[in-house]
Amino acid sequence: MTPQDMNARIVRYGELQPCKTAFIDAHTPGSNQKENFTIIGGGVSESPDQHVHITIPHGFNIGAAGQPPKCRNSMHNHRTAEVFFILSGRWRFFWGEKGDAGEVILEEGDIFNIPTNIFRGFENIGTDYGMIMAILGGDDAGGGVIWAPHVIEDAKDHGLILGENGKLYDSKKGESLPEGVNPMPLLTKEELAKVDCPTTSDVIGGYVRRYLDMVALANDGAVKVIGETGIIRDKPGFEVDFLTRANATEEKHAHDKPSVLMPVKGHWRVDWEGGSAILAPGDTMSVPENLAHSAVPSMTGEAAMYQVIATDDPAGQTWQG
């Protein structure tokens, strides 16, 4: 594959195109400074303004959220897996319908495989603009977002209405629901009762892994973070591996499904037959199936990278041991 072909499959951090109207809380004070990015796949944006960098189906989606300090993402649910790792900043993740059932603080490089069927939100509690990278299960990312009822009601007070078709309508722009389209119905008490509300210990122990712990594990070889044999045992339709200088190899390998390389620390050289490229933190590289390639740090110093590989498992969290 030529360097030109591969360059079309690399999204540089500095070239990411944000959308500030991606979701229903885009006008809600405290959430109105969010920037949403769809890097690979269709994403879950409710806005036609969302730019998609790479539209090639991978079996999963790659996205990101950028937020200034004290900006939060409102309580929502997904039907398939949602995995975040912290690229920059300090972040608080919380869950429960009102966001008061539990919380965890994550630092750069930490990863969180958020369980399905729980309301979750997050906020940047650092002192600078922060970025979290996201992996979402399935090519259609589970058919969109399920919002907690109060989020929909708050948004309406600030001019945004979500239609039952999953699209946003902004009264501040003179928009209204089209004829025949009703507002998105609020979840009933019976439906809310079916949403899980796990304890803090269950979530942190089962679904959170710390960057420094994974760095230590990498000294002993490959680290499968999420997978049937991973340190987070789950089968959400993709696997996640953790690479450092200690376990990276120049020996080329290939996968029978698309994969994605996402550096979190240091610069990485990716080689394949026909070319090479340097990736920096925040860059995202899509590697085609069956393309032999290798990835190793290109400079001295700290280096770490996440690798995402599609699997044949159904999109969504299926089990955890």
From TrEMBL:
Domain (Cupin type-2): residue spans on this chain: 69-132
InterPro entries: Cupin_2 (IPR013096), RmlC-like_jellyroll (IPR014710), RmlC_Cupin_sf (IPR011051)
A Pfam family this chain is assigned to: Cupin_2
UniProt-recorded name of the protein: Cupin
